[in-house]
Model the fold of this input.
Amino acid sequence: MSGATTFRVSWPEWLAWAALAFQAFFAMTHFSDGLRQEYGGIAALLILVAAGGKRWRALAAHPLPWLVLAFIVYSVLQAAYAARLTPALSFAKHLSYNTEPVRVGVLACAIGAWLAGRPRRIPLLLGLMVAGFVLAGLVCAPWTRIDAVVTGALALRFRYAENLVGEYAATGLLLLSLYALSRQWRDRAAITTAVSLILTGVLLAAFLLYAQSRAAWLAAVLVPLAAVACLRDVQRQWRRPAAIVLGAAVLTVAAALVVGYAFVAHRLAGGQTIVGALVHGDAAALPPSSVTVRMQLTLLGWHAWQVHPLLGIGLHGIQPMIVASGIHIGDYVPPHLHNAYLQTAVGLGGIGAALLLATLGVLVRELWLAHREGAVGSALYWALLGSLGIVLVVNVTDCLLWRVAYMRAPLELLLGCCFAVSLHRRRTGRETARQEQVPAPSCAAQASLHAPGMQRILGA
Done:
């Protein structure tokens, strides 16, 4: 009877793990419009609803689901406000745009609820995410125009924007580096694993380089920093490992400059001219470029936020505002403000942005507490923290958080992993506190246990 019960209980967990593996592998891919990366997270959520039980009690005891619930309520009310503000845009459209960040929060909670029971599987899911991205690069790369990619005439895309390719490549390099640093290299498969990691690292570095994303190049600085921080946690004598990691990073940058010096210099050219124009207040004289367009979008968003600072104009109202402003470069009219933080503040207002900031703050604080208390290893801690840092840096100059499924899916997985670590830490803390509350037997009670009468009662 107990075996049958165990079998029935294990089925939801088995299905949930299969769903999470699906989302992890396809999170950073875009093979076709019909293959939605969030199918895995949605399936995990439905299984969680059907399974119920202790996972729901753990969710109710954590502040994150309540923040997500507050944001859901706010999103509905804010969509109604934005619809009244812009009668040409319907309430349904505003609500549809507002549900994009809602999906991230809800699915992150579902993913974290399933991962909290076995947090040791988190590195496996992160590895699947990197493997799926490498496969997407090999399948979706523009091989017929690879010469233009190598010369810098064409930015590398995998059926999505080059900035996203750079962000995912930087994240993959971070996860790969921390795995290599934390692995024990004394087994028989060490050579095979090392060769596989080196080849994968070369591919990821090439993806990062040829994507030509300056924001991703900047975010990639977090890779050696996270590696040094991880080594410092693991090894107290950290100066030598840190020097090795920094030396490897310098050699990697030097190799990248040698291989792609021409287009790297082209991508970074003009920065001194732009800075000089900004210092002298002569930005209007700058020629049209992606940088000047971003500056115009920043000013447009800043003025729009000043008019509606608390409730915003709705995420759906931003693109019509840009079109009406006449901002463009050639035939390209930006669909967003090219700054995720400004986009959030203008679209959702200060209240919505504060709720999202509070949600992220809770997760980061819980992750830090788990690391301080030893509930999570150093490699996993810096992997999650560094990956979130890469996402935050890249989105300073773009809006790649939640507009489409292949943007949301990796973020849902990363936030879900952070949430799982938090749930695991809280559950472990409750169990430890419960054990400490059990009173130790007194000396008289211990003596009574050895009395002949008591021994006969206990069957001694």
Notes: Confidence is low (pLDDT under 50) at residues 1-9, 453-460. Residues 340-372 form the longest helix (33 residues). The radius of gyration is 26 Å.
